[in-house]
Amino acid sequence: MLAYRHAFHAGNHADVLKHLVLVQVLRYLGEKDKPYWLIDTHAGAGAYKLQSRHAQRNAEFENGIARLWERDDLPPAVADYVEQVRLHNPGGTLKHYPGSPALALQLLRPQDRLRLWELHPTDLKLLAQHFGTQPHTEVHHGDGFSGLKSQLPPPSRRGAVLIDPPYEMKADYGLVVNTVRDAMKRFAEGVVMVWYPQLPRLESQQLPQRLKGAAPKGWLHVRMTVQRPGVDGFGLVGSGLFVINPPWVLHDTLQGVMPWLTQALAQYDGASYVLEQHAV
């Protein structure tokens, strides 16, 4: 259960999509003076060295953030995300990739709060070293699925939740749905972002539809497919984000971004995206 390390995948195409959306959601929440919380249920190590042996094993970042690094035609939302990554690479050379906690810490204001959960002991140690002493931030050792219950609703009644487990076990898909349902009961107005891998397995394909039933006040679903399955029929061909209570501007932003981003990250001619929304 604890074999997964996000360091192997840092900065890949799935991170690009996930963090692009995260930046946009936090920008939106930051438009009002009232404080908000961000709760990350599976925070990982929080930041990654792209020259490490883990990141270099498959060098997945080369088909992700690296494809955007030198381009001068980035759409505004993509440029905003890339600029956040550049803040971790002051020399201009792509050497470090910020995970969700690092990106959030850059965007949160003094009145906002960051709550991080991680179960893997090695990643937890790194997470605590990087973020344990940061103001208004708490690092928790444990299962983020169950830990989320103690954080909702935040005192300000404003906030976002990021749920992106490893999905190593089939049970994770059911845990995601149950966690989202419980979160909506505790914090019906909260923004909940669920990342999922696009894999040739039934649980992955069914997850967005199952989440639609847990989002009575509206949802947005975006998925990007960038590569073929491996010769064995498996492999991460893309990923998706399901956002409950999305910012009202998010759909239009992604509508302008996804054609460009899909083409920029495409690894075969059949690359495509899905963008759908149900607004209440």
From TrEMBL:
<protein>
    <recommendedName>
        <fullName>Ribosomal RNA large subunit methyltransferase J</fullName>
        <ecNumber>2.1.1.266</ecNumber>
    </recommendedName>
</protein>
<dbReference type="InterPro" id="IPR029063">
    <property type="entry name" value="SAM-dependent_MTases_sf"/>
</dbReference>
<feature type="binding site">
    <location>
        <position position="42"/>
    </location>
    <ligand>
        <name>S-adenosyl-L-methionine</name>
    </ligand>
</feature>
<feature type="binding site">
    <location>
        <position position="164"/>
    </location>
    <ligand>
        <name>S-adenosyl-L-methionine</name>
    </ligand>
</feature>
<keyword id="KW-0808">Transferase</keyword>
<feature type="site" description="Interaction with substrate rRNA">
    <location>
        <position position="4"/>
    </location>
</feature>
<dbReference type="InterPro" id="IPR007473">
    <property type="entry name" value="RlmJ"/>
</dbReference>
<dbReference type="Pfam" id="PF04378">
    <property type="entry name" value="RsmJ"/>
</dbReference>
<comment type="subunit">
    <text>Monomer.</text>
</comment>
<comment type="similarity">
    <text>Belongs to the RlmJ family.</text>
</comment>
<feature type="binding site">
    <location>
        <position position="100"/>
    </location>
    <ligand>
        <name>S-adenosyl-L-methionine</name>
    </ligand>
</feature>
<keyword id="KW-0489">Methyltransferase</keyword>
<keyword id="KW-0698">rRNA processing</keyword>
<keyword id="KW-0949">S-adenosyl-L-methionine</keyword>
<comment type="function">
    <text>Specifically methylates the adenine in position 2030 of 23S rRNA.</text>
</comment>
<feature type="binding site">
    <location>
        <position position="19"/>
    </location>
    <ligand>
        <name>S-adenosyl-L-methionine</name>
    </ligand>
</feature>
<feature type="binding site">
    <location>
        <begin position="143"/>
        <end position="144"/>
    </location>
    <ligand>
        <name>S-adenosyl-L-methionine</name>
    </ligand>
</feature>
<keyword id="KW-0694">RNA-binding</keyword>
<feature type="active site" description="Proton acceptor">
    <location>
        <position position="164"/>
    </location>
</feature>
<feature type="binding site">
    <location>
        <position position="118"/>
    </location>
    <ligand>
        <name>S-adenosyl-L-methionine</name>
    </ligand>
</feature>
